[in-house]
């Protein structure tokens, strides 16, 4: 008999919806920062897919479509001028140590895209925190150049870095539209919000987690801001900058590394929001959201277990 050939990719409708939601953000990244953004995306997807294939072929298992999502999310958190070799090293580390060491798709404790991003952030701080480029405006924007003009001065850096250095804030209009220096996919609040609406409407992401993050962030940020903490910016400014929206919508809602219970998602989201403010205001890292989500990933199983124990105890009391 003729052997049945297994498909190269595992069909995952949920992952495809996430990819669809990311397409406008990818197009915008090219418009804002140049054609290099698209080439970098293709490069990372190729390296990440090949890395997962190398591990899965031993068990004759197909590649998960989730790896494409991981690669896209990771690339969109990188500065536009990130060297190709650093991007490749990061995604390989994320796939191997954030996913494969736990047994592959569905078994990972941490979000692989964030594992990759944190790895390159810590190991290669200069290209990941210092070298930024200007955002294009007008037509054809970045579609007519390889990479937009470089920025050297701190006073023209990303909004969060500028605030940490000078306490100055960017206009809300520019933060909302996205024509500001920053990582490839984290600048446009408008597109990220539209993606969130699509994901919630198609039931592809947890709205409880998203709202939980915003609640935790606004509660902690507003409290410290009112108390006069100099390292805490205006809560609305902080909400629209530093990758908070992107991390909340696409990273914190990862169904594998976040809690399964509804109550757990609320607790998990609030925890991430609070920790983000603390890291931003009192640690070395301007963003904070990626480290906060990884901390949330660590506690996700415990949160679910705690919720189940609480529910079980309540049933015994009412019985």
Automatic annotation (TrEMBL):
The chain crosses the membrane at residues 21-45, 82-102, 184-201, 207-227, 236-254, 266-295. One of its GO terms (cellular component) is plasma membrane. Keywords: Flavoprotein, FMN, Membrane, Oxidoreductase, Phosphoprotein, Translocase, Transmembrane, Transmembrane helix, Transport, Ubiquinone. GO terms for biological process: electron transport chain; transmembrane transport. InterPro entries: NqrB/RnfD, RnfD_bac. One of its GO terms (molecular function) is oxidoreductase activity. It comes from the Bacteria. Its EC number is 1.6.5.-. It is an enzyme of class 1 (oxidoreductase). PANTHER family: ELECTRON TRANSPORT COMPLEX PROTEIN RNFD (PTHR30578), NA(+)-TRANSLOCATING NADH-QUINONE REDUCTASE SUBUNIT B (PTHR30578:SF1). This is Na+-transporting NADH:ubiquinone oxidoreductase subunit B. It comes from Anaerosolibacter carboniphilus.
